[in-house]
Design brief:
Strand order of the largest sheet: 4-3-2-5-9
Order of helices and strands: EEEEHEEEEHEHEEEHHHHHEHHEHE
Distance between the termini: 6 Å
Shape: globular
Structural class: alpha/beta
Strand content: 15-25%
Number of helices: 11
Radius of gyration: 20 Å
CATH superfamily of the largest domain: ATPase, nucleotide binding domain
Largest sheet: 5 strands, mixed
């Protein structure tokens, strides 16, 4: 009987990494999670990836020898042909041969792609993107990332950087550090703006929800403050959602995309509340009127989108089937 050997999928984010062993039925059968801690340097991040792969395999009742391959989604500009991280601001990496380094450490074939690309691929195959031949995915977390599916295939573009909506410019005349989409619409930007306004004497409950610790304000904290009606949090989130919707509307207008999937930590925490805000803004700003029918939906795979997408993409590209 012909079976598919397990594959490890890794979602390497700027803040956290999620690692999962994915079986032939596309189920995650073993997991591990680590803090990325990019400030500690590349070698330490690689050590944590390797340890996480070993832990996930152990939790699945397997050894690393049982794994056919590894797929990893990394933030930033990636060259999937060589497995190189060209530029990843969230990791502070430039020209890191991640695929070769992990192959050397784990003795398995490794596929590397952009973290949001693999998440969007996962949603397209198994989640909120199923049935849409063309798709835009936008992930809102530490930064803002994007991925594109055209004609049921992941689209990289000539430079392998297609989909980088977070690095498009919203306000060219603004001071450096506040011009791009992710500098205004990411979870990081939302929290930074709330804290800046609090320091300017705007009242908010959000610090109380984080026990007075600014570092404790996470996506879930923002969601709770918003749901409790905190005026400042609502103003900042509503503004970020409107700006993100405008940016997405530009892509929809340009490319005629019929469906947009929103994911990432802030989307997972706020759910339909955030999705509805972005959807309204998108539909207000697209052209022509027929584009207002665009579907804007939230992730169905949540935090598993990147893990599943990385594993599925590795399986598809590396052809890692074997006979039992």
């Amino acid at each position: 009987m012909r079976t598919t050997r397990p594959i490890v999928g890794i979602d390497l984010g700027g803040t956290n990494m999620q690692i999962g062993v994915v079986d032939g039925a596309n189920k995650v059968v073993g997991r591990a999670k680590r803090k990325t801690k990019a400030a500690e340097g590349q070698r330490k991040v690689l050590d944590r990836i390797v340890e996480g792969v070993q832990e996930a395999c152990k939790n699945a009742g397997l050894t690393t020898r049982s794994i056919a391959a590894i797929g990893i989604g990394a933030p930033g500009a990636i060259d999937p042909a060589t497995g190189t991280v060209r530029e990843a601001p969230n990791l502070r990496w430039n020209d890191v041969p991640l695929g070769k380094l992990l192959t050397r450490r784990l003795n398995k074939p490794v596929l590397v792609d952009n973290d949001v690309n693999v998440a969007v691929f996962g949603e397209h195959r198994l989640g909120a993107g199923r049935g849409a031949s063309d798709l835009l995915g936008v992930w809102i977390g530490t930064g803002v990332g994007g991925g594109l599916i055209f004609h049921n295939r992941l689209y990289h573009g000539f430079t392998f950087t297609a989909g980088e909506i977070g690095h498009t410019v919203l306000f060219p005349g603004a001071p450096p550090g506040s011009r791009k989409v992710e500098e205004n619409c990411s979870r990081t930007a939302v929290v930074d703006r709330i804290l800046k306004l609090i320091r300017s004497n705007h009242p908010s409950m959000i610090l109380d929800l984080a026990d007075g610790d600014p570092e404790g304000i996470k996506a879930k904290t923002v969601s709770v403050a918003y749901q409790k009606g905190d005026k400042l949090t609502r103003q900042v989130v509503d503004n970020a959602a409107q700006l993100l919707g405008i940016s997405i509307a530009n892509v929809v207008t340009l490319l005629g995309i019929p469906r947009v999937v929103l994911g990432g930590g802030l989307t997972e925490a706020m759910g339909e509340t955030l999705v509805a805000l972005v959807r309204e803004s998108v539909r207000q700003h697209v052209f022509p009127e027929v584009c207002r029918r665009v579907e804007v939906v939230g992730t169905r795979l949540d935090a598993d989108a990147g893990v599943l997408g990385a594993a599925l993409l590795a399986r598809e590209r590396l052809g890692v089937r074997s006979r039992a």
